[in-house]
Design a protein that fits this description.
alpha/beta; Immunoglobulin-like; 6-stranded mixed sheet; 5-stranded antiparallel sheet; 21 helices; 35% helix; 25% strand; elongated; Secreted protein; signal; membrane
């Protein structure tokens, strides 16, 4: 209804003239046959036979249209068409020629879609002097053609979209009369004068790639990153996908849509980086120069341009909405990805991007997707009109901006234009047809309501190939030079006044395409990510430099939720598992050293437990708890367990000592366990036995008796020494008296002198240092005394 109404003011003269000519030709054919005295049926006029053959859909010959220039002709131009024809049959075709046929103008957007799929009659053939002759076409041998015709010979009278057919007509041995044996049809937009009101067209130019960086980094100061593969270098190299997008996009008036993860990955490649191997080894990356050149050109290109930054790693919003919301931490990851997006773009490209937009896969939305998309701060959702469908109340394609409630705007991209370049554009024929159909649809939008200016948004596939990018650029260059369209930014399209009759009702969850739902990340994926986050939370609290771990793992978990995993489910599982496994390996670098059996020979001793830190950085905020499983036999201090804080420098070990008290003979199991300061267990426990050799009462009596004897011996030695001292003092007194009394004689003096060399008395003490024991030590680990 809409498309029928849009041409009420147009002149149908080209179509009428065509039908009149065809009717006259068919009516005159019998007369002409009689005049020439030829058989009536098989020898009818060539035009009639051609029409009949074409109506049967003959396709013996494959016709490929490799180029058409100019894509949007103007008055005075010469249209040049080139391509190839290939005889697919088994018989040689003779008296063949390739010609151009111009049909009537199209009467709506759906008519363009229908005509593109049809292989039916294509209109009258242009003057036969603008043809390419082929006397013979052998089976399976391609032949090229090139035809140039002045535009004024095409009889393009009224503005609009014309059907343009390239046909091969010829004869076969079985049917020795001219007939159409192959056809390729396309469209020719004709708008030689500027339209009174031009359509504002916004084209999103995406710079997005798959996830390449892992969570792993080398243990050096620079934290050299490790990449899953070296595929990103191929995309950046001359002729690569991303290089082509950049080289082509710099000359176009587009809105750049960038995944900050791509920028971060390329920026990491400008320095030292490693490539992960199949055997868990790594090799140095060698494409720093390519990365630097691409990043430098991008920074220069986007200055002054509008840039939209997606959340980091382009999270899959539909997967989050349908399978991730039940997992506690999933939405917090989306918020983190949004927060880091602007910072990443600003720090690398030195421009300020917009982070107000959310872009679900294929623009497919439902209420839960909209809610998740806006939960992280975006207030505009990029949708598509094959999801937010029109009700048919408008006879034209409405402006893209729509209020959908809650202060949220949906920018509804045009599905036909957005999907125009999704095929294999490396094939020249496909590329040419895609460009012409894109331009035809764009002109038809303007022709629907020529007096009403509308704002149309085109959101192509997220990761166009190099050939798709080239075709997109060719179409956009022609569109920017056209007389019916003008370029506009996404922010301009967002602010455009909505059409009152445009659809604004967000479709229900049941209407979400099943083909897209099958590609979503499952709930198990978000549960695995949550488990990894829990481990990271426990790990980071013990680190002295948390950024070395939190940042790479945080970004890796953003990548694990990326839209790029759609269609690559096995790779997504491998990536998530790799992130978790690497974190487990890091956690294990801080551990307790296993202990053998320890011996406690006596009432008390100290038990050492060693904590090893193989990380580059130091760890603290750890607590080591030592617990006796048999506290009636062995206590740690005066209770069943004791705790001590632990702090270990990077690459070192620390021995933590606990006092143990034995209470009975036998073995007692002891458990050593590390905890974080908030009470979460860290790492596995270490269990070992302590063998207590308690001293018996009899032995205690013997020892006590021995101690008593030692005390008595000491007392005896003390009294003997005291008596000897007294005797010596008395003797010295007597000697002094005799010295004064010379009558005593020299003999006593001589006796006194000889007393100094008297032999040692039996009561003198023996040495108190016992000889060292030469007995071998007992088996097992000994505790410190």
């Amino acid at each position: 209804m809409a498309e029928a109404a849009e041409f009420q003011g147009m002149s149908p003269s080209p179509a009428r003239r065509w039908f009149r000519r065809t009717g006259a030709l068919l009516a005159a054919a019998p007369l002409l046959a009689g005049f020439l005295q030829l058989p009536a049926s098989p020898s009818a006029d060539a035009a009639e036979r051609t029409a009949v053959a074409d109506a049967t859909g003959a396709n013996t010959v494959d016709v490929s249209l490799d180029s058409l220039t100019p894509s949007v002709p103007s008055e005075g131009d010469t249209l040049t068409v080139s391509g190839r024809v290939t005889n697919k049959g088994k018989k040689t075709i003779t008296s063949a020629h390739v010609g151009l046929r111009v049909g009537p103008t199209m009467n709506g957007r759906s008519a363009i879609d229908d005509a593109a799929k049809s292989n039916a009659y294509a209109g009258r053939e242009v003057d036969d002097k603008y043809t390419r002759e082929f006397p013979k076409l052998a089976p399976g041998v391609p032949q090229t053609f090139n035809i140039s015709v002045p535009v004024d010979k095409l009889d393009l009278s009224a503005d609009g979209v014309y059907q343009l057919g390239v046909t091969l007509a010829g004869q076969t041995a079985a049917q020795p009369y001219e007939q159409i044996l192959g056809i390729e049809r396309t469209f020719l937009p004709w708008q030689p004068e500027a339209a009174d009101t031009r359509t504002k067209t916004t084209y999103l130019w995406p710079l997005i790639s798959s996830s390449h960086m892992t969570a792993e980094t080398d243990s050096n100061e620079q934290q050299t990153p490790v990449f899953r593969d070296d595929d990103l270098a191929a995309e950046l190299a001359p002729g690569g996908r991303l290089q082509q997008l950049l080289a082509l996009g710099k000359d176009l008036d587009v809105t750049w849509v960038i995944d900050p993860d791509l920028l971060a990955s390329v920026d990491a490649m400008t320095r030292s980086y490693q490539i992960e191997g199949d055997d868990e080894s790594t090799t140095p990356g060698r494409h720093q120069a390519v990365a630097k050149q691409w990043l430098g050109e991008l920074e220069e290109t986007v200055q002054g341009k509008e840039i939209v930054a997606l959340p980091f790693a382009d999270p899959d919003l539909a997967s989050l909405a349908h399978n991730g919301k039940k997992v506690t931490s999933s939405l917090s990851h989306l918020k983190d990805a949004t927060d880091v997006a602007a910072i990443t773009v600003e720090s690398i490209l030195h421009v300020t991007p917009s982070t107000d937009y959310a872009w679900p896969v294929n623009g497919a939305i439902d209420p839960s997707i909209v809610k998740v998309a806006t939960s992280a701060g975006a207030d505009t959702v990029i949708a598509r009109n094959d999801t937010l469908k029109e009700t048919g109340s408008l006879p034209y394609t409405p402006t893209s901006a729509r209020p959908i409630g809650g202060g949220t705007t949906a920018v509804v991209a045009d599905a036909r234009l957005s999907q125009a370049f999704q095929g294999d554009m490396a094939v020249a024929g496909n590329s040419t047809l895609a460009v012409q159909k894109f331009l035809a649809q764009s002109l038809m939008i303007n022709r629907q309501a020529p007096d009403r200016q509308r704002s149309i948004v085109v959101a192509p596939q997220r990761m166009p190939s190099a050939s798709q990018a080239q075709t997109m650029a060719q179409a956009l260059t022609a569109l920017e030079d056209s007389n019916w369209s003008q370029s506009a930014s996404l922010s301009t399209a967002t602010k455009a006044k909505p059409d009152p009759g445009a659809a604004t009702q967000v479709p229900s969850a049941s209407s979400y395409p099943s083909s897209l739902r099958k590609q979503q990340l499952p709930q198990a994926a978000f549960e695995q990510i949550e488990n990894t986050q829990w481990k990271l939370d426990n790990f980071q609290v013990i680190l002295t430099d948390r950024s070395r771990v939190v940042t790479p793992f945080g970004r890796a978990m953003n990548r694990a939720m990326s839209t790029s995993w759609r269609g690559h489910a096995p790779d997504a599982v491998v990536y998530r598992s790799g992130v978790e496994s690497y974190l487990n390996d890091l956690v294990k670098q801080v551990r307790l050293i296993q202990k053998s059996e320890a011996k406690l020979s006596g009432r008390s001793a100290t038990i050492p437990v060693t904590v090893q830190n193989n990380l580059v950085q130091g760890v603290d905020h750890l607590v080591l708890r030592l617990t006796s499983e048999q506290p009636t036999r062995l206590r740690i201090g005066d209770r069943a367990h004791r705790e001590q804080p632990v702090e270990v420098s990077g690459g070192h070990s620390q021995s933590v000592k606990f006092t143990a008290n034995g209470r009975a003979n036998g073995r007692a199991s002891v458990v050593a366990q590390l905890y974080t300061e908030d009470g979460e267990k860290y790492g596995p426990p270490v269990t070992f036995d302590v063998r207590v050799t308690e001293i018996t009462p009899t032995v205690m009596l013997v020892i006590a008796g021995g101690v008593l004897l030692l005390v008595l011996a000491g007392f005896r030695m003390y009294t003997q020494r005291k008596r000897a001292t007294a005797r010596q003092a008395e003797q010295e007194s007597e000697d002094a008296f005799e010295t004064d009394d010379e009558a005593d004689g020299p003999e006593e003096a001589s006796d006194a002198e000889s007393g100094a060399d008297a032999p040692e008395q039996p009561s003198d003490p023996s040495p108190d240092t016992a000889p060292e024991s030469t007995e071998p030590s007992a088996t097992g680990e000994r505790v410190d005394r």
